[in-house]
Amino acid sequence: MKKVRKGTNLSGNGLYLPFSMDLKRFRILAARKKTKLTGFLTKLDDIVPEDMPKLVAKTDATVWNDVDCTSCANCCKTMTPTFRKADIVRISAHLGMKPKEFVDKWLEKEEDGDWVNKQQPCQFLVDDKCSIYEVRPKDCAEFPHHNKKPFDLYNDTFIQNLHRCPATFTLVDRLMKAVEKEYEW
Ligand code: SF4
Ligand code: SF4
To answer: Is the bond preceding residue 144 a cis peptide, omega within 30 degrees?
Structure first.
């Protein structure tokens, strides 16, 4: 997903709180910790712990115990997916539209040639749920890209999304703590 416009998970007793239902609180904490987490991800560009894939998978599994996308939808509200040709064909057919009609109505082309939404929040977000979930763009289906390999190749994406996606914020925050504990960092 691309940025177009523009998650405290630690309570006082050190327990993670599910904050995806409180985006205001998330934004405050994310703003406070963004520089530190960005620094961690930037350093990961140079130093990648050997067992990083395992650590990412293990940590990511804990993230989804605490972050609930169905109560968040911040990505759909503040970013746009890129639409590949296959996405346009599939979604327009689902809506009973011709691909050109679909493009003219909803999309615009960026300088790099990517098709993106004209508007935010996404036109398909209804009551904080995706109304075309079964046929949504591949970019949406893969978001927030935590399973991409190698993980550190997507550092720039994660840096962009730290203050937009509570799941990415939580993953990077927990990864940083784990790496700092286990490695000379
Ligand atoms: S297509 Fe669905 S999942 Fe993708 S941004 Fe729009 S509402 Fe969100
Ligand atoms: S992927 Fe991130 S921003 Fe999107 S709904 Fe889930 S937690 Fe929120």
So the answer is: yes
